Amino acid sequence: EKKYDYLIVGAGLFGSVFAHEMTKRNKKCLVIDKRNHLGGNVYCEEKEGINVHKYGAHIFHTNDKKIWDYVNQFATFNNYINSPLSLSKGNLYNLPFNMNTFYQLWGTKTPEEAKQKINEQIAKYGVKSPNNLEEQALSLVGKDIYETFIKEYTEKQWGKKATELPAFIIKRLPVRFTYNNNYFNDIYQGIPIGGYNVIIDGLLKGIETKTSIDFFEDRQHLESLANKIVYTGKIDEFFGYKFGQLEYRSLRFENEVHDIENYQGNAVVNYNDAQYSYTRIIEHKHFEFGKQEKTIITREYPENWDRGKEAYYPINNDDNQKVFKQYKEESLKSKNVIFGGRLAEYRYYDMHQIIASSLAKVEEISKRKQE
Ligand code: FAD
After folding, report:
1. Is 219 tagged catalytic?
2. What is the rounded average pLDDT for all residues in the chain?
3. Pairing of strands 50-53, 44-47
4. Would you list the DSSP string of 319-339?
5. CA separation for the pair 154, 159 (Å, rounded)
6. For residue 93, which phi and psi values (nearest 5 degrees)?
């Protein structure tokens, strides 16, 4: 008899939801994480009384009432609505692309005028079958929107020229013909009051956790502790990179404390122009309508990734998908290991999607056991 039913590698949302649900079903869980804190990428670090989103700005949004009710068991959400701004060539614009943006860009006042402008631009600059990201964007929204908001920003994000990036990176570029700066279309949105750690603490309450433990540094011993393993780290690392290394984009965050109450008047300001090597500045207090005396801002710099850095965004090209498929097939053979979360599935997931996928996994296992 082993000490635990489940050893859960990774205390992010996937692992924490899994541990919570299995504990409710009377399973004994141990959650470990190699970082020195719980929560994975949603972790907030408190400084100057402000919850700093340590791994990038996180805004909860979903259309799924079940997931909304689920997270509301653990925290109360505030009424934050994400309405980022974009600074481009000295001017500030509202995002996402909507009637405010079009007014700021062209002076158009009615939806008819704005539509006409966009259609003219698409007719003039668009191409039939776009071969790269630039052609794709020009075909979807025309030159002005592309050059003001997309070109330089995207080139910084990917570290490549827009003409060298594949068209599929941009599938759609939604434009909105109302004066509505709400970035997301979802019904439910907000930031947990007290920060995301409140949710993680709620999920992991009463569950054994250990931080600063890397699974691979003590693999045999850790494996011997539990009947099953839930693995939420990088899938290629689990298999010793035997089919090759999956690639990511990384980010570097530079934090600054300012001795003023309000730095930029908004939580998120994108910096479009190439002259800034960061893509945005986050002012954390505005996520929670903070009234602290000081403020903390974070500049977000896209970076090339290597194994020593945090893996943020999977690079979903054919080469990586081929490699991933091999790992995926291999993972299906490991009967005692459950793979889940953004790193094991090599996919970008929003928080609500990760919670849904962890809940689905628990359901699947519980059903199988009953049969
Ligand atoms: P993670 O949170 O990464 O958890 C995995 C954990 O496993 C990590 O803590 C890691 O340390 C640990 N681990 C890995 N390997 C090992 C090992 N060998 N041993 C021990 N532990 C290990 N979602 C939204 O809904 N809204 C947003 O606004 C939003 N913004 C985002 C901004 C950025 C910059 C990024 C990168 C993501 C954003 N997301 C957002 C997505 C959100 O972060 C993820 O959906 C969520 O955090 C994924 O949870 P997870 O458990 O899969 O992974």
Report:
1. no
2. 97
3. antiparallel
4. HHHHHHHHHHHHHHH-TTEEE
5. 8
6. -130, 155
Report the nearest-CA residue for atom 7 of ligand 1: 10
Report residue 316's pLDDT band, with 50, 70 and 90 as the boundaries. Answer: confident
CA distance 256 to 293: 14
Is there a single domain that holds both residue 107 and residue 152?
A: yes
- What is residue 247's DSSP assignment? P
Residues 6+ apart with CB under 8 A from 294: 48, 50, 257, 258, 259, 260, 261
Q: Are residues 11 and 154 part of one domain?
A: no
Examine residue 120 and state whether it is found in any structural domain, yes or no: yes
Q: How far is the CA of 259 from the centre of ligand 1 (A)?
A: 31
DSSP 77-127: B-------EEEETTEEEESSSSHHHHHHHH---SHHHHHHHHHHHHHHH--
The string of pLDDT tens digits covering residues 152-199 is 999 999 999 999 999 988 988 999 999 999 999 999 999 999 999 999
Mean pLDDT of 211-229: 97
Q: Which domain holds residue 235?
A: 4-81+188-247+315-370
pLDDT confidence band for 53 (50 / 70 / 90): very high
Structural domains of the chain, count:
2
Distance, in Å, from the CA atom of 278 to the CA atom of 307, rounded to the nearest integer, reads 22
Residues 211 and 334 in one domain: yes
Say which CATH number the domain at 211 has: 3.40.50.720
Structure tokens at 206: 């009463």
Residue 266 phi, psi (nearest 5): -155, 150
For the CA of 300, the nearest atom of ligand 1:
34
Q: Are residues 241 and 344 in the same domain?
A: yes
The residue whose C-alpha atom lies closest to atom 16 belonging to ligand 1 is 233
User: Does residue 38 lie in a domain region?
Assistant: yes
**Structure confidence at residue 171 (pLDDT):** 87
- 353 located within any domain: yes
